[in-house]
Write a structure and sequence with these properties.
It contains 30 helices and 16 strands. With about 850 residues, it is an alpha+beta fold. Among the domains are: about 270 residues, no CATH class; about 110 residues, no CATH class. Strands 8, 11, 12, 13, 14, 15 and 16 form a seven-stranded antiparallel beta sheet that branches. Strands 5-6-7 form a three-stranded mixed beta sheet. α29 links the parallel β9 and β10. α5 packs across α6, α17 packs across α20 and α18 runs antiparallel to α20. The N terminus is likely disordered.
Length: about 850
C-alpha cells in the first residue's frame, strides 16, 4: 500500500498544482504558490485514496475482483492477446467466436492514439478496479472545485458520486469501460463550462482533451448519452445569452467548442472508422438481407431487444429507497426472514436452509434480472430537492433537465410515448440497448445540485427560507415514510419467476413477505437518514451548530449509508487471489482432449451451455458460439435459421470438428469428434444459383455442402460454373487469424473451392485474396462462407485481413494526437498570457 500511496500522491500533487494554476486558486506566477492553498486539495486526494484502499482492502493482499464481464472478455480475446504477444502486431480479426469476426470491439490496441496513454497511466497507477473508482471521484472533485464549491463539499459529493451503488455494481460486473467513460463526463463539462464562462480557448482545449479521452475508452453508449447533457447545457447558455443580448459571444464560443469536439474525434479515428465500417454488418447497425415479416427492418437494434432492460416507473424510487424493488436477482436473506423460518418449519435442516437463502430472486421489478438497484443516496436526494427551492445558480435548471432526461429515457418500454418516438426517429437512438443506463445522467446531475445546495446553505444561511427546508423534508421524508407505512398495500411483490419457484416447492408466499419487509425496512432507513439530515440543516440555519459539525456529520451519514449498501454487492467475497483467478481458466478433460488435436484450424460447439451466450469456450477453442453485443448480423441469421435447429450439414460446413457435451458418468464434460466436419477448404462439383438471400438461406435446410455450393446470382459474373472436382485437393498450410494460407492442386481446367471462413466485406473488401501473390476476388457462398474459382495447377492461396479503416486510420490518429497536444499547450499559453496582461 505504501508504494501505491507514494506514487499516487506524487502524481496528483502535480495534477492539483496544474488545476489550481488554471482555475486561479493561486496567482499566475509560480513564485506566488502558497502551500496553504494547496494543502486542502492534497488532503482531499489523500482522503480519497485512504477511503478507496479501505473499501478495496483485499487488493493489498494481492487479490483481484472477480468481474464476470472481464473474465468473459479475457476468454474471448485470448487468441488476439496471444497473437499480439507473439508477433507484436494487431490481428484485427479473431476466429475464436461466432466462426470468425472483426476484433475492433473485442481487443485492438490503437497505438497511434497518444492521448489514451494519459488514461492508461492513471488507471495503471492503482490496483485493478480501484483506479476506475478513483477516476470517478477525482474527476468529479475537479468539476465541483471548478464550480467554486467548497473543497470539503466537493470531496463529500465526489465520494458520494463515485460510491453510487450503480457504479460499484458495475465495477463488480466488470463494466469498466462504462465507468471510465462516465468518469470523463465531469472533466468534459469542466472544459465546456470554463469555455462559456471564463476563457473559451483554454476551455475548448480542455474539452478536446477530455472528450478525446472519453471517446477513447470505447463506450459509445455513455458518450452518446452524454451528448444530451452537453445539449441541455448549450440550451441553457443560449437562453442566458439571449436574455443578456450576448448571442454573438455564445455562437462564437459554441463554434469553438464544436471544433474542439470534432478535434477530439481525431486521435480516435482509427477506432471510430473501423467500428463504423464494422457496425454496418452487425446486429447494431446492419440490416439483414432476409425477409422477415415479424421483425421491423432497419438500421439498428430490434426495439424489443433494445428495450429489454427498461427501468420500471415506480422502480425509479430506488434512487431514494435502495430496496424498493427488492435488491438484486440473486441476493441473501438472514435467519430472521420469513423464507428461512418457513423452510425450517417444513423440515429443511437449518444449515441447508441457510445455504438456500444466500441466493434468492429478491428483485421483482420489470427488468429480466439485475445485480442491484440504482441508489443515489437518501440524503443526497433530500439535498437535491432542497436545492430546487434554494439554489439561485442558473445551473440548477440544467441539472434538473439532465435528471429528468435520464429518468424518462431509462423507463424505455414502460414509457413508449416518448421512447418509441426517439427510437424510431432520433439519430443513433436505436443503436443501444439497456435503457436503464440512462440513469447515469441522473447520477451525474443530482450530486452536483446537492453540492450546490450545501454550498448555498453555507454562504447564504441568513437568506434561507425555512419553509423551503421543510418542503424538501415533507417531499422526500413524506415519500419514504409513506412507503414504509403503506407500501405493502400498493404492490403484490411478485416476480415472473415465482411460478417456477412454486412448482419446485419453494415457499413463495414467504419470499413475497420478505420482499415487502425489505421495502418497508429500506424506506424506514431512508426516512431516518433524511430526518437526520433535515435536523442538521435546520439546526444549522437556526445557528445551533457550526459548519464543521454539519459537514462532518453529513459526510459520515452519506458515506456510511452508501458504504453499507455497496457492501451488499461488492465485498470481500467478490475478491479472489491470483491462483484462484488463474484456475478460472484451467482446462478440463474435454478441453485437453480437443487441444491434443494439433490441426491448424477447426471449430468447437459447446453444448453444455447456451453456446450463443458463452464466451469461455473461446479461451481455448475456435467456437461456433460466443458472447458479444455486436455480432455479425449474417451470422445471427444463421444462428436463428440453422444453428438453433442443430442443422448438422451447416455445422459440418463450419468445420465443427468437436462437440463438448455432458459426461453423465463423471458429471463433468467430455469431447466428441465429428467425423463429418468438412475441414478448412474443399472443392465442390455443383453450383446452385439462387435469386436472393431468402432462397440462399432456405437452401441450407437440405443440401450436401461437401458436393454442392449455394451462391447468390449477384456473383454470377465473378464465378465460372464450368467446374470439375476430379481429384483436385486443397489444404490449409499456415494459420494466423488475419492471414490464412492454403495449397491447392487443381487437376482440371477450373475448380471451385469453398473456404470454411466467415464472409465479411468491411469498408473496402477488407479480406484480400491472393493466388500465387496476385490479388483476386472471392465471393460469398452458403450465406456465410467464402468461395472462389481456382485455375488448373498448383497454387498458393492467401487471405489477408487488411482493413483500410485501421491502417490509414492509425496515421490520421497520430496526426490529430499531436494537434490536440499542441492545442492544449497553446490554450494554456494563451490563457496565461491574457492573465499577465489583464
Amino acid at each position: 500500500m505504501k508504494n501505491y500511496v507514494v506514487i499516487v500522491v506524487n502524481i496528483f500533487e502535480l495534477a492539483i498544482l496544474i488545476l489550481l494554476l488554471i482555475f486561479q486558486k493561486i496567482n499566475s506566477s509560480m513564485k506566488n504558490v502558497n502551500l496553504k492553498q494547496l494543502l486542502p486539495h492534497i488532503y482531499a486526494v489523500l482522503i480519497m485514496i485512504v477511503i478507496l484502499f479501505v473499501y478495496f482492502s483485499p487488493v493489498l493482499q494481492g487479490k483481484v475482483i472477480k468481474q464476470d464481464d472481464i473474465i468473459r472478455h479475457k476468454a474471448m480475446s485470448k487468441e488476439l492477446v496471444d497473437f499480439r504477444e507473439k508477433f507484436h502486431e494487431e490481428a484485427l480479426w479473431t476466429n475464436a467466436m461466432f466462426g470468425g469476426m472483426p476484433a475492433f470491439q473485442i481487443s485492438v490496441l490503437y497505438k497511434s492514439n497518444l492521448i489514451q496513454y494519459i488514461h492508461k497511466f492513471i488507471i495503471k497507477t492503482f490496483p485493478k478496479g480501484v483506479g476506475i473508482i478513483f477516476l470517478l471521484i477525482f474527476g468529479f472533485y475537479l468539476f465541483l472545485v471548478s464550480l467554486k464549491m467548497n473543497n470539503w463539499i466537493s470531496l463529500m459529493f465526489s465520494i458520494a458520486f463515485g460510491f453510487s451503488t450503480y457504479f460499484i455494481i458495475s465495477l463488480a460486473a466488470g463494466h469498466n469501460s462504462k465507468l471510465t467513460a462516465t468518469a470523463y463526463m465531469a472533466i468534459v463539462m469542466l472544459g465546456i463550462i470554463f469555455a462559456y464562462r471564463k476563457n473559451r480557448w483554454l476551455g475548448a482545449a480542455l474539452t478536446a482533451l477530455a472528450l478525446s479521452l472519453q471517446i477513447g475508452v470505447n463506450h459509445p453508449q455513455i458518450t452518446y448519452y452524454f451528448l444530451f447533457v452537453i445539449l441541455a447545457y448549450a440550451v441553457l447558455e443560449f437562453v442566458l445569452a439571449y436574455k443578456s443580448k450576448q448571442l454573438k459571444k455564445f455562437f462564437i464560443t459554441s463554434g469553438i467548442l464544436i471544433f474542439a469536439g470534432l478535434l477530439s474525434i481525431g486521435p480516435n479515428i482509427s477506432r471510430l472508422w473501423s467500428t463504423y465500417e464494422y457496425s454496418k454488418e452487425t446486429i447494431r447497425g446492419g440490416k439483414s438481407e432476409l425477409t422477415n415479416p415479424d421483425k421491423k427492418q432497419g438500421s439498428g437494434l430490434d426495439i424489443d431487444y433494445a428495450m429489454s432492460w427498461s427501468y420500471g416507473i415506480p422502480e425509479t424510487f430506488t434512487l431514494l429507497i435502495p430496496d424498493f424493488y427488492g435488491s438484486s436477482s440473486s441476493a441473501a436473506l438472514d435467519k430472521k426472514s420469513e423464507t428461512y423460518k418457513t423452510l425450517v418449519q417444513k423440515g429443511v435442516p437449518p444449515k441447508q436452509a441457510e445455504n438456500y437463502i444466500k441466493h434468492l430472486p429478491l428483485y421483482w421489478g420489470d427488468q429480466p434480472f439485475t445485480s442491484g438497484p440504482v441508489y443515489a443516496g437518501a440524503i443526497l436526494v433530500f439535498l437535491f430537492v432542497l436545492g430546487l427551492f434554494i439554489v439561485k445558480n442558473n445551473l440548477k435548471w440544467w441539472l434538473l433537465a439532465v435528471t429528468v432526461i435520464g429518468i424518462v429515457f431509462s423507463w424505455g418500454k414502460n414509457f413508449l410515448l416518448i421512447n418509441e418516438l426517439m427510437f424510431d426517429y432520433f439519430p443513433l437512438f436505436n443503436k443501444f440497448r439497456s435503457p436503464s443506463m440512462w440513469l447515469t445522467l441522473a447520477l451525474f446531475a443530482m450530486p452536483v445540485l446537492a453540492a450546490m445546495t450545501l454550498q448555498t446553505i453555507f454562504t447564504e444561511k441568513e437568506k434561507i427560507n425555512h419553509k423551503s427546508v421543510l418542503n424538501a423534508f415533507y417531499i422526500t421524508g413524506g415519500i419514504t415514510l409513506f412507503f414504509a407505512l403503506f407500501g405493502g398495500s400498493f404492490f403484490d411483490f411478485t416476480a415472473p419467476s415465482d411460478n417456477n419457484l412454486a412448482q419446485q416447492g419453494w415457499p413463495v408466499e414467504a419470499l413475497v413477505a420478505d420482499r415487502a419487509s425489505m421495502m418497508k425496512a429500506s424506506a424506514f432507513k431512508s426516512f431516518i437518514l433524511i430526518a437526520l439530515a433535515f435536523g442538521l440543516v435546520w439546526f444549522y440555519v437556526k445557528n445551533k451548530i457550526s459548519n464543521g459539525v454539519l459537514t462532518s456529520v453529513l459526510a459520515i451519514l452519506i458515506l456510511g449509508d452508501l458504504w453499507v449498501e455497496d457492501k451488499k454487492y461488492l465485498n470481500e467475497e467478490h475478491f479472489v487471489n491470483k491462483r484462484e483467478y488463474k484456475n478460472l481458466f484451467a482446462p478440463d478433460a474435454a478441453d485437453q482432449m480437443i487441444l491434443a488435436d494439433k490441426s491448424l484450424d477447426y471449430r468447437v460447439l459447446n453444448l453444455t451451455v447456451n453456446p450463443f451466450t458463452d464466451a469461455m469456450t473461446s479461451y481455448f477453442h475456435k467456437s461456433i458460439g460466443g458472447y458479444h453485443g455486436a455480432k455479425l448480423i449474417r451470422y445471427q441469421d444463421l444462428i436463428e435459421r440453422q444453428l438453433s435447429k442443430n442443422n448438422m450439414q451447416v455445422l459440418n460446413m463450419l468445420n465443427t470438428k468437436y462437440f463438448i457435451v455432458p459426461n453423465k458418468q463423471s458429471g463433468g464434460r467430455m469431447a466428441q469428434m465429428n467425423p463429418q466436419a468438412l475441414s478448412n477448404a474443399w472443392f465442390v462439383n455443383t453450383i446452385k444459383w439462387v435469386n436472393n438471400a431468402d432462397e440462399e438461406m432456405a437452401s441450407l435446410d437440405n443440401f450436401n455442402p461437401k458436393n454442392e455450393v449455394i451462391i447468390d446470382k449477384r456473383y454470377k459474373d465473378k464465378v465460372s460454373d464450368n467446374i470439375n472436382l476430379s481429384g483436385s485437393t486443397i489444404k490449409m498450410t499456415d494459420y494466423k487469424p488475419n492471414h490464412l494460407t492454403y495449397e491447392a492442386n487443381v487437376l482440371d481446367d477450373n475448380a471451385f473451392a469453398v473456404f470454411s471462413e466467415i464472409y465479411y466485406e468491411g469498408g473496402d473488401k477488407d479480406w484480400k485474396t491472393y493466388i500465387d501473390g496476385k490479388e483476386t476476388e472471392h465471393v460469398r457462398v452458403n450465406y456465410v462462407l467464402r468461395g472462389m474459382n481456382i485455375p488448373k495447377g498448383k497454387h498458393t492461396i492467401e487471405f489477408k485481413f487488411l482493413p483500410r479503416s485501421y491502417y490509414d486510420g492509425e496515421k490520421y490518429s497520430l496526426i490529430f494526437s499531436i494537434i490536440i497536444i499542441l492545442v492544449v499547450a497553446a490554450g494554456i499559453w494563451k490563457y496565461a498570457k491574457e492573465k499577465q496582461t489583464a
